[in-house]
Amino acid sequence: MRASKNSLSPTIQMRSSGFTLIELMVTIAVLAIIVGIAAPSISTQLENQRVKATTATLVSALKEAKAESVIRRQALEFSFDASNHSIAIKTKEDSPVEVASYSYSSKSIIKADETSITFSPSKRADAVTLNVCDNYSATTMQVIVTTAANISSVAGGTCS
Questions:
Q1: Among 13-17, 82-86, 110-114, where is mean pLDDT lowest?
Q2: How far, in whole angstroms, is CA 79 from its chain's centroid?
Q3: Is residue 58's pLDDT more than 60?
Q4: 67: phi > 0 → left, psi -120 to 50 → alpha, else beta; which?
Q5: Which residues share a beta bridge with 140?
Q6: Quick one: which of 102, 104, 154, 158 has its CA closest to 131?
Q7: Domain locations in the chain?
Q8: Architecture label for domain 21-155
């Protein structure tokens, strides 16, 4: 005949309730392994998102510079400062006036042969290819500005 749990003595009931130290240690070890496997892919995703966000900021700033040069009917200079992680759009006059400014992630890198691009009101620009990457990521995006002031972004390029 089986003994019910209620008929067991209190000391036996206390021993059978809860988790043992070994069970808790095994559970924590399994969780640590899962986190160890997932963490690198999460950091890679974050790096890729930073590259995409910086590329989107760069494209938006370039398109604004192009549109503002046509609206204002004057040449505008788009420039980026890698040390301050900033982008500026200014008029090309003796005393330049800042039209707009942007900032991007300090972990992002923008590389190009030229740090400034001139947009003219006749919808022309300096042809430049800008490479955007992250400090730690292998993902790189290219932003291409043609002489006809067409602006596009594609995957690829190098920041080395």
A1: 13-17
A2: 20
A3: yes
A4: alpha
A5: 133
A6: 158
A7: 21-155
A8: 3-Layer(bab) Sandwich (3.55)
Cβ neighbors of 107 (< 8 A, separation 6 or more) are 47, 50, 134, 135, 136
Region label for 65, one of left (φ > 0), alpha (ψ between -120 and 50) or beta (otherwise)? alpha
**Residue recorded with tokens 């290219």:** 142
C-alpha distances out from residue 42 to 35, 49, 52, 107, Å: 10, 11, 15, 16
Closest CA to 81 of 52, 110, 58, 123: 110
Q: Copy the structure tokens of residue 77.
A: 């200079």
Do 61 and 89 contact (CB within 8 A), yes or no? yes
Confidence grade of residue 46 (pLDDT, cut at 50, 70, 90): confident
State pLDDT tens for residues 85-143. Answer: 999 999 988 888 899 999 998 888 899 888 899 999 999 999 999 999 887 667 889 99
Of the CA atoms within 13 Å of residue 30, those in its CB half-sphere come to 6
pTM above 0.90, yes or no: no
Environment class of 144 (CB within 10 Å of its CB; exposed 0-12, middle 13-18, buried 19+): middle
